[in-house]
From TrEMBL:
Pfam families: DUF34_NIF3. Belongs to the GTP cyclohydrolase I type 2/NIF3 family. InterPro entries: DUF34/NIF3, DUF34/NIF3_bac, DUF34/NIF3_sf, N-reg_PII/ATP_PRibTrfase_C. A divalent metal cation binds at H65, D103, H327, E331. SUPFAM superfamilies: NIF3 (NGG1p interacting factor 3)-like (SSF102705). GO terms for cellular component: cytoplasm. One of its GO terms (molecular function) is metal ion binding. This is GTP cyclohydrolase 1 type 2 homolog.
């Protein structure tokens, strides 16, 4: 198995196009044609992790946080980024980053946090917008079913928990084949009128190339008429953070202890306790203070995230219990998420979870 095959597999799972515009995901270092000897999964790709990969005979590292984020203007090994990249190149180790595209995935980072807290009815805290497209195309009646099924197979027509969704409206189309045309129906220079159906489906934007390819391959016409629109609908599956409910409400103290035990954090920062039970919980792994207002507007009892600054804590205004469990602590199980996906889809290739603790924050207790 080659590096490129793993990259394609990961892109199909959580498409690179779903990452935020500021992010840097995908294959950052390495050759797509390199034969794999093993994969190491890590949260951060530091020089020590490269050493671990060498020791475990892995020539590909899949990291959650991109080691190259803002670009490299020089390459002199004067900082931790350049040292790690240099060592990877020297030992022919590929580095693949999978970051905000996994953050927003239906069963991504925040879904994993919600699962570990046993939250039910999980849905996005901030749904992704402008990522759903609609296709209109016009097909002869006799080909309607075959084209419809081809589009479904390409991933179109999926809405929430429903598949194979489409709309049909019958009508009549006209066309006049000119001298160089090769029409499926009709004759050159004769105006033709044909019974056609409007076929309409929606799909996530990253599927556009596959959907159009399926349309053109299955459609009988030499020139296929179609329109693609971007919808304002929010995506029901993709988005930053997750919000859900505990099966039974518990006290604030019980919830804090649950967090401490489940996320192995020696220190939890939080706003003043409100002496109200916890039932509805919002979560966002990593730096999530930008979503405080979203959690409040959706009437969450608490919002669990990380990197909340002093002044951001004031935004609680007594309406919510804000909890900061630490950046590393909130995302630490992302390694397990990636590992479980790979082991479930790859045969005998050795895959390891990094044993090196990359958390740069230490606690004096």
């Amino acid at each position: 198995m080659k590096v490129g095959k793993i990259a394609l597999m990961l892109d199909k799972w959580v498409p690179e196009s779903n990452a935020e515009s500021f992010d840097n995901v995908g294959l950052l270092v390495g050759n797509v044609d390199e034969e794999l000897t093993g994969i190491l999964v890590t949260l951060d790709c530091l020089e020590e992790v490269i050493e671990e990969a060498i020791h475990k005979k892995c020539n590909m590292i899949i990291t959650f946080h991109p080691i190259i984020f803002s670009g490299l203007k020089s390459f002199t090994c004067n900082n931790y980024v350049e040292k790690a990249v240099a060592k990877a190149i020297k030992h022919d180790i590929a580095i693949y980053a999978i970051h905000t595209n996994l953050d927003i995935a239906k069963e991504g980072v925040n879904f994993e946090i919600g699962n570990r807290l046993n939250l039910k009815n999980l849905r996005p805290l901030i749904s992704k917008k402008q990522c759903i497209k609609k296709l209109h195309t016009y097909v002869p009646f006799v080909h309607f079913s075959s084209i419809q099924q081809a589009l479904f197979k390409a991933g179109a027509g999926e809405i929430g928990n429903y598949k194979n969704c489409s709309f049909r409206m019958d009508g009549r189309g006209t066309f006049l084949p000119t001298q160089n045309a090769n029409p499926y129906l009709g004759n050159i220079n004769n105006l033709e009128e044909v019974e056609e159906a409007l076929l309409s489906v929606i799909f996530e934007d990253y599927k556009l190339p596959d959907v159009l390819q399926a349309l053109k391959k299955s459609h009988p016409y030499e020139e296929v008429a179609y329109e693609v629109y971007t919808l304002d609908n929010e995506n029901q599956d993709l988005g930053m953070g997750r919000i859900g409910e505990l099966e039974q409400e518990i006290s604030e103290e019980e919830f804090l202890l649950k967090l401490k035990n489940n996320f192995l954090t020696p220190c939890i920062r939080h706003t003043v306790l409100r002496n109200k039970p916890i039932k509805k919980v919002a979560v966002l792994g990593g730096s999530g203070s930008f979503a405080i207002k979203n959690a409040i507007s959706q009437e969450a009892d608490t919002f669990v995230t990380a990197d909340i600054t002093y002044h951001k804590f004031f935004q609680a205004e007594g309406k919510i219990l804000l909890i900061d469990i630490g950046h590393y602590e909130s995302e630490q199980y992302t390694k397990n998420l990636i590992y479980n996906y790979l082991t479930g889809n790859i045969g005998s290739l050795p895959i390891y979870i990094s044993e090196y603790n990359t958390n740069p924050v230490n606690y004096f207790i």
